Amino acid sequence: MSITGLTIRHVGERFQHSNDTISKYFKRVLRRLCHPGFYHAYIHLPKSHHPIPNEILADTTWFYLYFKNCVGAIDGTHISLYAITVEDHETSRNRK
């Protein structure tokens, strides 16, 4: 929702849960991720002098090609996402 731009209604339909439930748990997860205990233990932003990992540099067809200007990812894990279609673009737009 925050990253994909989907609405609570879309996520609720996808996972077959009410909008209330989706909203409640989205907020809970977001609060946990922002909690100082979690944040300081697991979120480490790379310094400008840190080298780019070899597995990213070596795979020029995937990682480096698409992530060359990215600062980093949580735990070095890349999350699989899909792009929305042109038809869904307007309904999936973040209006906040």
Detailed description of the structure:
There is one protein chain. This protein has 96 residues and is mostly helical. It has one domain. The chain is built from 6 helices and no strands.
SSE topology:
Blueprint: H1 8-15, H2 19-34, H3 36-42, H4 54-58, H5 63-67, H6 86-89
Helix pairs in contact: 1-2
By DSSP, the count of extended strands is 0
- Alpha carbon gap, first and last residue: 12 Å
What is the count of DSSP helices, taking H or I runs of 4+ residues?
6
What proportion of the residues is helical, as a percent range?
Answer: 40-55%
Count of the domains: 1
Shape, per Cα inertia axes: flat
- Low-pLDDT windows of residues: none
Order of helices and strands: HHHHHH
Tell me the major beta sheet: none
How much of the polypeptide forms β-strand, as a percent range?
Answer: under 5%
Secondary-structure-based class equals mainly alpha
Radius of gyration: 17 Å
Nearest-integer average pLDDT: 74
